[in-house]
Design goal:
By secondary structure, this protein is α+β, with helices and mostly antiparallel strands. It contains two helices and seven strands, in the order ββαββββαβ.
Length: 138
């Protein structure tokens, strides 16, 4: 699964996720995109599951771009641990996805194939999404 090779700090604070995306909010590489309509954390496992669904449906024709990467480590304390004794161990890595971010892009394939692939892929994600074309603003 995706995770950074190296990071400056091992553990991070949660941070704020308010507002809409000002970067990464247009289809830049492909012809079609899957855009997030909500703000959320998307885990590396969810990204990989979605990627596999898209490549399976498109039979590996065309080109797929992942526009997000799970840079942020999240921690989790053991179930039976008592209060205190510091922050938990790193559990997984997540990508912070704001409203309006293009998550995936597809190119060099027909629109109906891309639309169906993104429809199936959207069920794997914890956010509401929409299908967008290049040059379209939603």
């Amino acid at each position: 699964m995706l995770q950074p090779k190296k990071s400056k700090h091992r553990k991070e604070f949660r941070g704020s996720m308010s507002g809409i995306a000002t970067r990464g909010n247009t289809v830049s590489f492909g012809d079609f995109g899957l855009k997030a309509l909500e703000t959320s954390w998307i885990t590396a496992a969810q990204i990989e599951s979605t990627r596999r669904t898209i490549t399976h449906h498109t039979n590996r024709i065309g080109k797929l771009w992942l526009r997000i990467f799970p840079h942020k480590p999240t921690t989790h304390k053991a179930a039976g641990s008592k209060m205190g004794s510091g922050k938990g161990d790193i559990d997984k890595h997540v990508a912070v996805v704001k409203r309006g971010t293009v998550i995936f892009e597809l190119g060099s394939l027909p629109e109906d194939v891309a639309r169906e692939a993104f429809r199936k892929a959207a069920s794997k994600l914890p956010v509401k999404t929409s299908f967008v074309k290049r040059g379209e603003i939603l």
